[in-house]
């Protein structure tokens, strides 16, 4: 971490107070998300249409417990995460053991101790922009993947204010390359979140907007992994090849 706050996670996350506070924060944020982004009638603030939701739901429910999941998505609003997870069933949204770990900008969400404790209990991991693929947040997410957990990544690395092309960062390539078990990589694309929470002052949630979320089939990385093996690719090339494959699929 660079002059913001100390690393927010204790050595063990199984302490009673940590789990209780984490469960409360995750449940409260999940409830607010469902209020803002309704995906069933009657709608409350905004309506959300979800295509192929079953792909992620089935992946979370049916995978072996040791197989991790990585989701990748475009990034158009500061409310993309956690808001978009409100489209999942309650059994996922309110479950501290199932809901994702998410790489989160340390200079936005971890600027003081109170914010740090809140976001850490919401399973957000502080990543230093410009800190490269070898930093503590990436190591921590690899650890979580090796425990068979779910990690979410915005490969663009920042909110895309004008929906222009942004080359994907190689961090997602490292997460996949260094997982002990190949993760199931589920891509999805969404539109309308920047209307729900605009990226302009006064940054207030809006009413009556429409959001579309489209999940794709898990990305098959077997071919690119075999190509990397045939080329005797080093770590840098492997990360690039994996990231390029995900970018092409998205």
Automatic annotation (TrEMBL):
Protein name per the record: Tafazzin family protein
Entry annotated with the keyword Mitochondrion: yes
Swiss-Prot/TrEMBL catalytic activity: 1'-[1,2-diacyl-sn-glycero-3-phospho],3'-[1-acyl-sn-glycero-3-phospho]-glycerol + a 1,2-diacyl-sn-glycero-3-phosphocholine = a cardiolipin + a 1-acyl-sn-glycero-3-phosphocholine; 1,2-di-(9Z-octadecenoyl)-sn-glycero-3-phosphocholine + 1-hexadecanoyl-sn-glycero-3-phosphocholine = 1-hexadecanoyl-2-(9Z-octadecenoyl)-sn-glycero-3-phosphocholine + 1-(9Z-octadecenoyl)-sn-glycero-3-phosphocholine
Keywords: Acyltransferase, Lipid metabolism, Membrane, Mitochondrion, Mitochondrion inner membrane, Mitochondrion outer membrane, Transferase, Transmembrane, Transmembrane helix
Segments passing through the bilayer: 20-37
CDD domains: LPLAT_AGPAT-like
Organism: Daphnia pulex
Localization per Swiss-Prot or TrEMBL: Mitochondrion inner membrane; Mitochondrion outer membrane
One Pfam family recorded for the sequence: Acyltransferase
InterPro entries linked: Plipid/glycerol_acylTrfase, Tafazzin
């Amino acid at each position: 971490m660079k002059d913001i706050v100390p690393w927010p996670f204790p050595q063990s996350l199984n302490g009673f107070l940590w789990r209780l506070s984490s469960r409360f924060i995750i449940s409260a944020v999940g409830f607010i998300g469902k209020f803002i982004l309704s995906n069933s009638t009657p709608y409350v603030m905004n309506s959300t249409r979800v295509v192929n939701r079953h792909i992620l739901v089935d992946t979370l429910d049916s995978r072996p417990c040791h197989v991790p999941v990585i989701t990748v998505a475009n990034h158009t609003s500061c409310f993309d995460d956690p808001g978009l997870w409100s489209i999942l069933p309650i059994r996922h949204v309110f479950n501290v053991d199932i809901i994702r770990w998410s790489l989160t900008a340390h200079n936005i969400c971890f600027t003081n101790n109170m914010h740090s404790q809140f976001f850490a209990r919401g399973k957000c991991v502080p990543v230093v922009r410009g800190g490269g693929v070898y930093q503590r947040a990436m190591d921590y997410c690899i650890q979580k993947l090796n425990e068979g957990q779910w990690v979410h990544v915005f490969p663009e690395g920042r909110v895309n204010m004008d929906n222009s092309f942004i080359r994907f960062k190689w961090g997602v390539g490292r997460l996949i390359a260094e997982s002990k078990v190949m993760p199931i990589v589920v891509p999805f694309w969404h539109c309308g979140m920047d209307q729900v929470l605009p990226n302009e002052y006064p940054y207030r949630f809006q009413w009556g907007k429409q959001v579309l979320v489209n999940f794709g089939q898990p990305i098959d990385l077997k071919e690119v992994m075999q190509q990397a093996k045939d080329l005797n690719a080093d770590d840098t090339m492997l990360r690039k090849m994996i990231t390029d494959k995900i970018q092409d699929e998205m």
